[in-house]
Every structure is written in C-alpha cells, then in structure tokens.
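yo, isochorismate synthase is done. seq:
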Amino acid sequence: MPQLIPVTTARIGEHLPLLDLLPATAPISWVRNGEGLVGWGVHATTIVSGKDRFAKARTWWHQQLETFSISNSVHGSGTGPVLFTSFSFDRNEESVLVIPQVVVGQKGTNSWVTWIGDQPQPALPESPPLLSTSTFTFGEGSLSSTEWMKRVADAVARVSTTAVEKVVLARDLIATSDSTIDPRPILKTLAAEYPTTWTFAVDGLVGATPELLVRLSRGMVTSRVLAGTISKTGEDEKDLALAASLARSSKDLEEHEYAVRSVANALDPFCSSTNVPESPYVLHLANVMHLATDVTGALIESKQHIDAFSLLQALHPSAAVCGTPRNIAFDIIDEIEGMNRGRYAGPVGWIDASGDGELGIALRTGQITDRSIRIFAGCGIVAASTPEKELEESAAKMIPMRSALHG
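structure:
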C-alpha cells in the first residue's frame, strides 16, 4: 500500500494581506473584502472536458483525497486540502483543476495555512513583493464592434421570432504587453477598486466577479443572480436616479426574472426549502449597477452525496450567461457569437474535502497568455434590446479589466 501524503492545516497569526502573499508564477486567488483563499505551487493538476466534466472533476478530486493523510486543527469550510477550479463555458472546451502546494486562508479573525508534504510549515513573506508592471496596447477581438452589433441585431430578431426569450452574447478584446504579464498588479487593482467582488486567479484566468454562482456550506446553498445593468456616472444624485430607473425598467426586470427563474428551478430538486425574494435589489459597483437577487436554500438531508459538483452540474450555464431556455440559447450562441469563450463565463472558485465550496461565474475577466491578455464582456439580449445600447453596456463591463491593466 503506497504511503499517504501528509496534508497539514494550522492556525497562523498576523500576516500580510492575502494578495501580498502571492508569487509571480501561477498565483491562485479567491478573495473578497480581504477574506478568502490564496495558493501557490502545484501539488497536482489536470484538465477535464465533455458533458460529464463536473463528474470527472469530482472523481479526480476524490482520487487525490484518497492519497492524503489529513491533519486539520482548524476545521470549517476552506480548511484542509482545497481544489481550485476554472471550468469552461462550453462543455467541449478545457476546464482546469489545480491543487496548490500551499493555501493560506482568512475568514474574520481566523487565519490558517494548509500545506502538502512532510516539510515544515512554510514561512510566509514578511514584506510586500515588488511587482512588475507592463504597458498594454489594445486591439480588436474576435469581432469588430460593427460586426458584433450585427450579431446582436440577429439575436434580437431570433428572440422576436423563435421560442427563445433571452440570449447572452459575449465579445472580447485583446491587449498586448511589452513584457511578460505579472497577474498580481491586476489582482490588487481589482481588489482595491471592487472590494465587494470575488477577485480570482486560476491558471492565467484573472478577474473580479460580482456574481456568486454557488456557495455550499454545511447544507446551506446561496446563489447570487445578476442580470440587468446600467452604467454609473460618478455623480451621486444622478446615480440614485439611474438606480431607480433600473429598478423600474421592464426590459431589465424581464431579463432578470429569466435569470432568477433559471437558478431557482435548478436548485429546487436539491433543496427542502428555497427562498426567492419577490423583487431584486440594486447592487452598486464602482462602474455599473446591477439588478441582483440572492437565492438561498437548505439541502434535502435525506439525499446523499449532494456536493458543489452536483450543484454546478445543475446551475451551469445559468440564464445570466447563456439565456432562456438554456438549450435553445446555447445553440444560438454557438451559431452566431463568433468566438470561443474559453473559461470566460464558466464556474471559477474552490471546493474543499467535504464537498463544500464557493464558486462564481468568471465575469469581468481576462485570460493571460505570456504577453497578451484577452478580456471579455457579455450582454443579455431580449426583445427590447438595441445593438448600440448593448455595445455601450459591454464597454462599461470591460472597464474593470481595462482599468486594472493601466493600474
């Protein structure tokens, strides 16, 4: 019988802010308001794809867990060995799973470190690292703005004439750097400017998502739905008026209702009870405002083996990033969007040894490849949509990443 690999979790005292602990090479992050998890080093990694990719991911994770001898004096979600995941939007593209060598966690007044192997507890940096900066030049993405607006017009026509109610169309831009891109300045700028979002990094995919696809913790499920967006002006009075108009907008309320219904219906088979608020609230971010609804539920206790993978299989893709009905919307996206999303709009986050986890939708994001980064934005197209307004909305949604690159 092969010898088991030690995995140790221990409490730690004061340390640098989580993002200041990260190395330049392959940093891993899931941080919101200074709390969350960061990791580095690779104990094991793999790629999965196909319609059963969530089941494949679970199988691989459980196989890895069987090789561990776990000593965890902290307990709670996110302690012990942790799997970081970044799934593709399309089931046929590659999804990445990574088990870091070292993970540091922070929640409230609790801090901990988990490391794999029989070495002593790793020393953490005592001073913030020096960060390298790059100068970026932006170019077109897969489609020009004019061509993308034609695709939006096509989607509007299909909503008006077919059984589809909403289609989400994404676009991309590519920025080229004068040097190898260091992800850490991007993450730190995003975290500073958008502290209420989840700042993530997994295998070169970096971003700050405001949309929590699923949190599973001790039998309680939460999913935050965002759909319906308006840009901010930066002037408080005007933005309050805009927030009120967003909350009354029939187009945005319609789009939001589709997304909420999609999530509630997906969670219902797993839950003994769910709470779906009757009306959304307005979530204020630095650059935009969204209609938001937090759907919550309690898992059915008699059902065994419900874990984060089970919920991901049911929830992805949500109407917020695909459309309604999902199967028809997905086919339309495949036909007319004109680009490969990769891991944009896929689930990203972490899952622990108990099957609990926290995963968002990879929005406000970029994919780094050596000296280039591809950034994305998507818009929900309904019958009342206009190509010009959707182009404006997509540009507003790209501001966080564009700003972070120039930070």
